[in-house]
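Batch 3, record 17
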Amino acid sequence: MTKALVSEFKQALLMLDRLAAKRISAEGRQRLSPPEFVEKVVIPALEEVGEGWEDGSVALSQVYMSGRICEGIVDALLPPGDPDRKEKPKMAVAVFEDHHMLGKRIVYSMLRASGFELLDYGRVETEGLIQRVKADGVRVLLLSTLMFPSALRIKEVRDRLNGDVKIVVGGAPFRFDDQLWQEIGADAMGKTASEAVNIITQITGEKS
Amino acid sequence: MTQTSLQRVLTTLGHKEPDRVPFFLLATMHGAKELGLSIKEYFSKAENVVEGQLRMRAKYRHDCLTSFFYVAIEVEAWGSEVVFCDDGPPNSGMPIIRSAEDIKHLEPPKIEETACLLKVLKTTELLKAKVGDEAPIIGVAISPFSLPVMQMGFDKYIELMVEQPDLFERLMKINEAFCVAWSNAQLEVGATAIAYVDPISSTTITSREMYLKTGFKVAQQTLAQIKGPTATLMASGRCLPIVGDLAQTGTAIIGVSVLEDLAEIKAACQNKLTVLGNLNGIEMRRWTPEQTETIVKDVIAQAGPGGGFILSDNHGEIPWQVPDEILMAISEAVHKWGRYPLNWVENDD
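Prediction for the assembled complex:
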């Protein structure tokens, strides 16, 4: 039953059909509690969308709009501050150095659509980022970058944070060189935003 | 008989085998290394880029020159800030379109009044004076469909495309006028062909269904007005599902991704499009010369037979971090294994 719901929901997302997705969510809510709907329908559907991008059958514009649609639905189901939202450990997401915000926006939407709360730092450079991470007590930092030299400079962030903060990276340079994340000392790399959700689920399991 | 670079490229474009596999070493920033300049200094004068291009071609014996500076130069022309760094191409700064409403008042830059574009035109003119018809000079224009990523940001652009079709159409019209004028200005001063950079049309970013309604139509209309041959570059994005559509846009070449099977792409392009690609520029910086030779040989084996192939990286801009030793190894491997007929390919099978 849930499988059919996931499939229908995913289809609505791929068609970028916000209204259909809302309708399916309303129908699903007659049988599932809000956290159950998020866990059993939204997250699996987003995972399949992400896998589709990985194998080339789904386009990034569909991944992005799927995340946005789900973010709205989950915000209505689990409003910020809802006890079922996962707020610990403290997390932040940022674009490192460049102005290409899409990857970060997708990860932010996907994580929020999966019930996590996190800070959105927008675009950052090393100095400002370190200060904010320390001031906010961030324990998990997600960094997205499009430009290759910026990816290399994440190593400095890693060194300055002395291993106190888990760093998860993503973005085009990491997709084209699967050893790059280890070279710069990141703790994990997500090729897709749904991989980021899995990584964060794993990290938060370890840290909570 | 040894062909000139231009003859070699034209032969492969005719889907015939030239004397050897042509190769385009699209190392733009490495010219600064050749001249001992910072990247910012290097791109400050047309003469530097001309000298850098000529020195690199003499050193690596590749088959084109390019008057391309860096991607962000086009939004610099539209009034955006450009941020230079010491180890990579300059980045575009804050988007010039802050809200979709700005599109209603957007005007394209006038080429003849825009210093950064005039610098590119001067570079093209000087290169043409040096090289004549011996080698092609590749000019670059960002497609009207892909430019908005820098004009307004990727996320806002996707939302515009999906949710505000009227403003999207308006932006395409404005960008199309600029792209045509900019491409033709480069052709007039000596560019042989225009690389139409269109990663947003790639199926990595846009589904085929949406592409047919958007990027495909934009490309058909734009390329029809460009008065010279064009090559569509996907800048590392996938394109196999739209190869047939790309052929109908009027382009002659497609720049393809390392993420797709090159032999499959070549088969899909047979006698319709020339394939340009597909070395992984990001990984390249940690290849050894031996690995480089193996990879180049493999790429030639997959796409070289029958012509219709130009060897290149898969992005159109080789990272600054790739050592000269590897660029040299690529060159040596193409000269060693790229000579037609490629009899060794069958023997290796």
